[in-house]
Amino acid sequence: MEAVARAPEEALKPRRLMRGSPLKFQPWIPGAAWADVMEPRPLGGRFRAVRRIATALVWTMIAVPIQLVLIRVSTRAAMTFACKYHSVLCRVIGLKVQVIGRPSTSPSVLYVSNHSSWLDILVLGSVLQAAFVSKAEVGQWPVAGTIARLGRTIFVSRKRSGTGKEAEEIQQRLVAGDSVILFPEGTSNDGTRVLPFRSSFLSVATDAKQVQPVSLVYDRLGGLPACRRDRPYFAWYGDMDLATHFWRIARRSGARATVLLHEPADPAAFPDRKALTAAASQVVADGAAQLRQNRAAVPLTLRPAGSVG
Question: How many domains, the chain?
Answer without folding.
Answer: 1
